[in-house]
Design brief:
alpha/beta; 24 strands; 27% helix
Length: 545
Amino acid sequence: MSETLGGSRSVAPRPATEVGAYDIDTDVLIVGYGCAGAAAAFEAAEAGARVLVLERSGGPGGASAMSGGEIYLGGGTPIQRACGFTDTPEQMAAFLRAALGPGADEAKIERYCADSVAHFHWLVARGVPFQPSLWDAPAWVPPTDDGLMWLGENSWPFTELATPAPRGHRPAANDFGGKLLMDVLAAAAGNAGVAARFDSYATNLIRGEDGTITGVAARRYGREFTVRARRGVVLTTGGFVDDDRMLAAHAPRLLAHTKVSAGTDDGGGIRMAQAAGAAVRHMSAGQVGISLIPGFAARGMVVNGRGARFVNEDTYPGRIGQAALFRQDMDVWVVLDEKAYEEVPEPQRWGVRPTHVAETAEELEQLIGAPPGALAATIARYNEFAARGMDPDFHKAPRWLRPLTPPLAAIDVRAGVRPPAETGDRRGTGASVFTLGGLHTTVDGAVLDLAGTPIPGLFAAGRASSGLHGEGYISGTSLGDGTYFGRLAGRAAARARSTRGIPAHSVPITGTDPPDEGQTALASPPWRGPRRRFPARRNTGGHPS
């Protein structure tokens, strides 16, 4: 475990006895102002605490603001019902256990799914708008403001494990909705009385003689300052995809690919907590956004450099991405015909054009460098069964099955994609990645040490923590995980040293529990939020996964 930051400055906890006088005094300190930090700050303030957020950037947002904005919600939300779908927390949990495993956190999945409808109402009560309409086609980010989308629930093997229901809930924004979501959450936190100090980078936790975390040391414009947190510190500092040393130590397969971040996911919060004895989980896990158009993939085939299929192409594209990187080393092509290409409207192609075009499968396999006869055999077998609406090899749904006819095209995923708001050459490895592992926490965000004991005064949420995920990922489970468990962590921190014996891991938060002081029941708010306008999205440097 390293106790240095950036190779020079120590991240070891500062003894509280060495801090003469704190520069700032608050009840709950949130470090990081993405969606998890905003949710934690709001809940802590609503619980009656004085709340300060430290954010290293010049304003709130982080990677959350640059995301697609999908929030994974289910169990029978008003949007699902309005679109004609029946869902239950049990079916939602069954899907997530399969999609996020192996190693997914069973307790967190159960709690998240049980409270999902209540969390939907909480988001709407804060002002997040959702349209009661469905985008019913494969996509990274739909080009409409439809409020619901499929995220692999209707693809094999999940159709055999849980009743399919779409659960990707999208704020009412055409294209990327992360900025809209963050604008709403940051405004809600501000209206609740949360204070923020920007351009401030936390460098060390401050620890009392009894092991309690009592605050942080931070730097702003080259000067150090200290913050006392009388009730708790919540780390919502993001993952570690921007620190190549951490990637090399924990997740080397994620090195040398496009990083999905705001440039601030350097693992600083994780390292500070580790230096104070915190345990981590799933540090090798990562999500892979593959540079392909899901509509092309579903209508055609995805093959490796040997001309062989390796996944059902109608599944969540992030699953294709993980299979492509971890099993195929990104030597991957999308093969389709002219009809499949033309069926995807031009704005949804994100600038993707065929890398090679050929009149025969044999000619195409030569162009992509596949072994002689390999791709031709793959296409022949695919076409034979597709003519009968079958896919015995990978179980793609009949909706997307038909024989591919010449001329045929192959698209090299390394050529990249270019969402409408972006410009420039997007060629790279074909993978855009971020980390899933982080600090080991309880359901309510208490950070655990190596013995499984909560570290007093220290909490975490969002990508700084190991949340719902094991090795798998589904879009919306970062923003959903971050906002929901951020709420729990914020409220637990607010009550950590003011409840006279009530442990942090037992704090109720959802509408299924009786409202306590400072808490509003979540079951009654209307499900339609106000419509909002928002500026164009900034360059993400990767996929909204």
